[in-house]
Request: fold
Amino acid sequence: MNLAKDTKYIRSINGKVSVIGMGTWGIGGGYWSPDYSGDDEWVRVLREGIGLGMTLIDTAEMYGGGHTEEIVGRSIRGFPREELFIVSKVWPNHARYDDVLRSARASANRLGTYIDLYLLHWPAPDVPICETMRAMERLVDDGVIRFFGLSNFDVRGIEEARSCLSKYDIAAVENRYSLLHRVDEGSVIPYVQRNGMLYLAYTPIEKGAFSNNGFLMGIGKKYGKTAIQVVLNWYVGIDNLVPIPKAGRVEHVRENAGAMGWRLSRDDWKLISDHFH
Reply:
């Protein structure tokens, strides 16, 4: 895989994208939020992360039944909009042309702003991908979104979607990826790198599974960093890849932000890569 050189931003898809983002799955209450702790607290957490430089925020219409997008909208008020990169997703049961348009506009209304990157959340087996892609191109023309892409797709699915497009191209792919889940290393990640796309990695810290890892803690001591910061910095070292750990608590976003602005040595990067293979 290609190794990135910058330590704070990826210069991709016509703008600066922070090398670490914030995920919002489980934020905002409802069925998907067993650890709900109040909207004001979620807003405080997200604003803290933005202030620390994690300006990419990943959300979706199905998170909290749309309420999560409202919380993101509250959180970004007062920050320069051009410095933020807001990602949202349409659920596959809304993949029909008119439904995509309706869903995107509803998401933009809840967010109180346009959407930088709009993704089809999962493949929709009952809807031709070309129908969904036509809607995505329309949304760009209408100014509702700036870019669009796919989530939970393999290379074959990405290429099928690209074959439908007449005016724009897929800008990004968001899939599950971590040191413990490396399926995309030989396929999707090099594909997006070759084609100048962005790769968003969800579940990058495996719900805290790395936090007490002795191997990572040992490497972290060399840099004055925690095991989680070492793992996140390992992802930062991969060209075009942005990890999006959940912004669960203020202390979490502060720790995550501490993974930016420095770089593992190439030897340590490879040591970690080999250790988890």
About this structure: Residues 16-209+234-249 form a domain with the TIM Barrel fold (CATH 3.20.20.100). Residues 97-111 form the longest helix (15 residues). The mean pLDDT is 93.
